[in-house]
Amino acid sequence: MATRHQVRQAVVSLLYAKEMGNDTDEFRDEFLEEHKIRNKQREFTKSLFKGVVNNIKSLDESLDAHLDEYKVKELGVVERAILRLGAYEILHTQIDTPIVINEGIELAKEMASDTSPKFINAVLDAVGKESK
Protein backbone atom coordinates (compact mmCIF):
# COMPACT_ATOMS: atom_id res chain seq x y z
CA MET A 1 0.00 0.00 0.00
CA ALA A 2 1.29 3.41 -0.93
CA THR A 3 2.04 5.96 1.78
CA ARG A 4 0.59 9.45 1.73
CA HIS A 5 4.04 10.71 0.79
CA GLN A 6 4.06 8.41 -2.25
CA VAL A 7 0.58 9.67 -3.11
CA ARG A 8 1.87 13.25 -3.07
CA GLN A 9 4.85 12.26 -5.23
CA ALA A 10 2.38 10.77 -7.68
CA VAL A 11 0.22 13.91 -7.69
CA VAL A 12 3.26 16.11 -8.39
CA SER A 13 4.28 13.75 -11.19
CA LEU A 14 0.77 13.78 -12.66
CA LEU A 15 0.62 17.57 -12.51
CA TYR A 16 3.99 17.67 -14.28
CA ALA A 17 2.76 15.21 -16.91
CA LYS A 18 -0.39 17.29 -17.42
CA GLU A 19 1.70 20.36 -18.18
CA MET A 20 3.77 18.29 -20.62
CA GLY A 21 0.61 17.22 -22.47
CA ASN A 22 0.00 13.77 -20.95
CA ASP A 23 -3.45 14.40 -19.55
CA THR A 24 -5.60 11.36 -20.18
CA ASP A 25 -7.45 9.12 -17.75
CA GLU A 26 -5.68 6.14 -19.33
CA PHE A 27 -2.25 7.68 -18.67
CA ARG A 28 -3.18 8.46 -15.05
CA ASP A 29 -4.52 4.96 -14.43
CA GLU A 30 -1.43 3.31 -15.92
CA PHE A 31 0.86 5.60 -13.90
CA LEU A 32 -0.94 4.82 -10.64
CA GLU A 33 -0.89 1.09 -11.35
CA GLU A 34 2.84 1.17 -12.17
CA HIS A 35 3.50 2.90 -8.84
CA LYS A 36 1.23 0.45 -6.97
CA ILE A 37 -1.13 3.16 -5.80
CA ARG A 38 -4.39 1.34 -5.28
CA ASN A 39 -7.71 1.39 -3.45
CA LYS A 40 -8.13 4.23 -0.94
CA GLN A 41 -4.76 5.75 -1.81
CA ARG A 42 -5.71 5.81 -5.51
CA GLU A 43 -8.90 7.67 -4.63
CA PHE A 44 -6.91 10.07 -2.43
CA THR A 45 -4.46 10.66 -5.30
CA LYS A 46 -7.25 11.33 -7.76
CA SER A 47 -9.05 13.66 -5.36
CA LEU A 48 -5.89 15.71 -4.74
CA PHE A 49 -5.08 15.84 -8.47
CA LYS A 50 -8.62 16.86 -9.45
CA GLY A 51 -8.78 19.35 -6.59
CA VAL A 52 -5.63 21.09 -7.80
CA VAL A 53 -6.74 21.06 -11.44
CA ASN A 54 -10.25 22.33 -10.62
CA ASN A 55 -8.93 25.15 -8.41
CA ILE A 56 -5.80 26.06 -10.36
CA LYS A 57 -6.75 29.68 -11.00
CA SER A 58 -7.50 30.53 -7.37
CA LEU A 59 -4.45 28.55 -6.19
CA ASP A 60 -2.19 30.49 -8.57
CA GLU A 61 -3.68 33.78 -7.38
CA SER A 62 -3.04 32.84 -3.76
CA LEU A 63 0.52 31.74 -4.54
CA ASP A 64 1.25 34.82 -6.66
CA ALA A 65 0.38 37.01 -3.66
CA HIS A 66 3.31 35.42 -1.78
CA LEU A 67 5.91 35.40 -4.54
CA ASP A 68 8.21 38.42 -4.53
CA GLU A 69 10.10 38.23 -7.79
CA TYR A 70 8.16 35.73 -9.87
CA LYS A 71 4.69 34.58 -10.68
CA VAL A 72 3.67 30.94 -10.49
CA LYS A 73 3.72 30.61 -14.28
CA GLU A 74 7.43 31.62 -14.31
CA LEU A 75 8.54 28.91 -11.88
CA GLY A 76 9.91 25.51 -12.82
CA VAL A 77 7.24 22.94 -13.55
CA VAL A 78 8.13 20.74 -10.55
CA GLU A 79 8.22 23.66 -8.10
CA ARG A 80 4.92 24.90 -9.51
CA ALA A 81 3.33 21.47 -9.04
CA ILE A 82 4.58 21.17 -5.45
CA LEU A 83 3.34 24.65 -4.56
CA ARG A 84 -0.06 24.11 -6.17
CA LEU A 85 -0.51 20.81 -4.33
CA GLY A 86 0.58 22.34 -1.02
CA ALA A 87 -1.66 25.38 -1.44
CA TYR A 88 -4.59 23.14 -2.32
CA GLU A 89 -4.08 21.02 0.79
CA ILE A 90 -3.71 24.08 3.03
CA LEU A 91 -6.72 25.92 1.61
CA HIS A 92 -9.13 23.09 0.76
CA THR A 93 -8.48 20.12 3.07
CA GLN A 94 -8.42 19.43 6.80
CA ILE A 95 -4.76 18.35 6.76
CA ASP A 96 -2.68 20.30 9.29
CA THR A 97 -0.60 23.06 7.69
CA PRO A 98 2.72 21.97 9.28
CA ILE A 99 2.27 18.50 7.76
CA VAL A 100 1.58 19.98 4.33
CA ILE A 101 4.61 22.27 4.56
CA ASN A 102 6.86 19.41 5.67
CA GLU A 103 5.63 17.25 2.79
CA GLY A 104 6.27 20.10 0.36
CA ILE A 105 9.82 20.47 1.64
CA GLU A 106 10.46 16.73 1.35
CA LEU A 107 9.04 16.65 -2.18
CA ALA A 108 11.27 19.58 -3.14
CA LYS A 109 14.33 17.80 -1.72
CA GLU A 110 13.52 14.70 -3.77
CA MET A 111 12.21 16.19 -6.99
CA ALA A 112 13.45 19.75 -7.42
CA SER A 113 16.62 21.86 -7.22
CA ASP A 114 18.82 22.38 -4.15
CA THR A 115 17.34 25.80 -3.44
CA SER A 116 13.74 24.68 -3.78
CA PRO A 117 13.08 23.33 -0.26
CA LYS A 118 13.70 26.73 1.37
CA PHE A 119 11.61 28.47 -1.28
CA ILE A 120 8.73 25.97 -0.98
CA ASN A 121 8.83 26.31 2.82
CA ALA A 122 8.62 30.10 2.71
CA VAL A 123 5.76 30.26 0.21
CA LEU A 124 3.63 27.52 1.79
CA ASP A 125 4.23 29.01 5.25
CA ALA A 126 2.93 32.36 3.97
CA VAL A 127 -0.13 30.68 2.41
CA GLY A 128 -0.76 28.85 5.69
CA LYS A 129 -0.55 32.03 7.77
CA GLU A 130 -2.94 33.80 5.41
CA SER A 131 -5.48 30.98 5.57
CA LYS A 132 -5.89 31.19 9.36
Automatic annotation (TrEMBL):
Domain NusB/RsmB/TIM44 span(s) in chain numbering: 5-127
Entry GO terms, CC: cytosol
Keywords in alphabetical order: RNA-binding, Transcription, Transcription antitermination, Transcription regulation
InterPro entries: NusB-like_sf, NusB_fam, NusB_RsmB_TIM44
Organism superkingdom: Bacteria
Any one biological process term the GO annotation gives: DNA-templated transcription termination
MF annotations from Gene Ontology: RNA binding
Family: Belongs to the NusB family.
Function: Involved in transcription antitermination. Required for transcription of ribosomal RNA (rRNA) genes. Binds specifically to the boxA antiterminator sequence of the ribosomal RNA (rrn) operons.
Protein name: Transcription antitermination protein NusB
Organism from which the protein derives: Campylobacter corcagiensis
Gene name in the database record: nusB
